[in-house]
Amino acid sequence: MSTLILLTFTGLGLGALYFLVASGLSLIYGLMGVLNFAHGSFLTLSAFAGFEVGRRLGAGTFTGFFGSILVGAVVGGIFAAVTELLLIRPLYKRHIEQLLVTVGLSLATVALFEGIWGPDPIFLDSSGWLRETTEILGARIPNDRFVTILAAILVLGGLVLFLNKTRYGLIIRAGVENRSMVTALGIDVRRAFTLVFTIGGIAAGIGGVLASHFFGYVSPLLGGSLLIFAFIVTVIGGMGSLAGAAIASVLVALLQQFANFYLGIGDFIVVLLLGVVLLVRPQGLLGKAAA
């Protein structure tokens, strides 16, 4: 029984990480039609920034942990905004060029991070409340799982409120439906789209810092490894659907955890699930079918 509970909470924590990365991917693609393969770079840079802050303030302390999350979110948002302004904005509606630019940026940043921090994983300080455990029905659950799950819930709620209850959220959704009409009303849609990229980068930044604590290390390849599963989650949930990304994140992570523990083929099962979804429901669980 304790093993099932531990696997469930570990899967939920991993699913929360997948959602934090996939939410930005889903938001950017759903509202802007941009497949951003550099999204993992936002996560990795934020993870390293959070690591540097935590190293100076104490990674195991309350101040160091939340300070690293704040800095990671800011770094991720700024990096994403600069990427949109300099690289993506000149290439709207030129999808092949967008793809090449974001892939190139992801490869270049990995080389840059390796040059600065080295190619090997850097392990984090394991002291403090975050590395302690809480007992639930005999299972000792690491506290960082609860923090990661809570962060994903807050990000999901914040994104839904932003898109449905704020002026910029309404502008963004209207700009997606009819950009020319919104521009004719004197509204700068480009500024709203930059904000979308920034929000996606903030979510990835939070995910990057939490991922470093979840796995216990930070490395130049951290973002790339999570990005693969974030794309799988985005496709299974439905491109552009936040709710679909949330459901798919939990489904994929739980399936992966249980299959790894009992069969040792978690990644294969996830890819198999992706293939089944693409064959049976190509638009994803909550995606809209193409007209």
Automatic annotation (TrEMBL):
* Top-level division of the source organism's lineage: Bacteria
* Topology of the protein relative to the lipid bilayer: Multi-pass membrane protein
Provide the primary localization.
membrane
Q: Which UniProt keywords apply?
A: Amino-acid transport, Cell membrane, Membrane, Transmembrane, Transmembrane helix, Transport
So where does this one cross the membrane? 64-87, 99-117, 146-163, 192-215, 227-254, 261-280
Report the locations given in the UniProt record. Cell membrane
Write down the InterPro entries for this protein, in alphabetical order.
ABC_transp_permease, BCAA_transport_permease
PANTHER family in the record, alphabetically? ABC TRANSPORTER ATP-BINDING PROTEIN, BRANCHED-CHAIN AMINO ACID TRANSPORT SYSTEM PERMEASE PROTEIN LIVH
Please give the family membership noted in the entry.
Belongs to the binding-protein-dependent transport system permease family. LivHM subfamily.
The name on file for this protein is Branched-chain amino acid ABC transporter permease
Lineage, broadest ranks: Bacteria, Bacillati, Actinomycetota, Actinomycetes, Propionibacteriales
